[in-house]
């Protein structure tokens, strides 16, 4: 019983230290926050988000290209296949997002629509960066 309690206590401490740690925000997130503070209209926030989407897409492509050069042939082939499947997922998810937000009334949903797409690309970009960090020991 004490071993189980000790395991859960250590697990909770490990998880909470990760959750509550103050990580430095990514420069794209800093840009987006700053841009939205300057452009608080619906159109301004949407433009800021769309710019950040492009930036995250560039980040994603940067790490994809780096990884493709770093990996052995078999691993690169697997990454390429995974990326093609992720692109298919992204396109279907964007269609899903478009359909959901097309039914929403109110201008506040316009930037939220763009932000939902941003989150999909950002997650993949950070995932590829994590792979890079794992391989390089960063």
Total of domains:
1
Strand fraction: under 5%
Helix percent band: over 70%
Number of beta-strand segments: 0
Termini separation: 38 Å
Radius of gyration: 19 Å
- Stretches with pLDDT under 50, minimum 5 residues: 5-9, 15-19
| Shape type | flat
What letter string, H or E per element, gives the SSE order? HHHHH
Give a short account of the largest sheet. Answer: none
Short description:
The chain contains five helices and no strands. With 138 residues, the chain is mainly α.
Features:
138 residues; mainly alpha; 5 helices; flat
Structural write-up:
The protein has about 140 residues and is mainly α. It is about 85% helix and about 0% strand. The protein is built from five helices and no strands. The chain has helices at about 1-20, 25-40, 40-70, 75-100, 110-135. The longest helix is centred in the middle third of the chain and has 30 residues, at about 75-100. It starts with a helix and ends with a helix.
Write the layout of secondary structure elements.
Blueprint: H1 2-20, H2 27-38, H3 42-70, H4 73-102, H5 109-136
């Amino acid at each position: 019983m004490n071993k189980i309690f000790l395991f859960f206590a250590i697990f909770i401490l490990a998880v909470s230290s990760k959750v509550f740690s103050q990580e430095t925000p990514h420069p794209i997130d800093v840009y987006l926050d700053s841009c939205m503070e300057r452009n608080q209209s619906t159109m301004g926030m949407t433009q800021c988000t769309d710019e950040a989407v492009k930036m995250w897409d560039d980040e994603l492509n940067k790490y994809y290209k780096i990884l493709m050069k770093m990996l052995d042939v078999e691993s690169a082939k697997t990454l390429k296949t995974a990326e093609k499947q992720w692109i298919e997922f992204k396109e279907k998810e964007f269609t899903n997002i478009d359909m959901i937000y097309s039914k929403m009334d109110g201008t506040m949903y316009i930037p939220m629509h763009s932000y939902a797409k941003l989150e999909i690309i950002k997650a993949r970009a950070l995932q590829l960066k994590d792979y890079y960090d794992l391989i390089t020991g960063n």
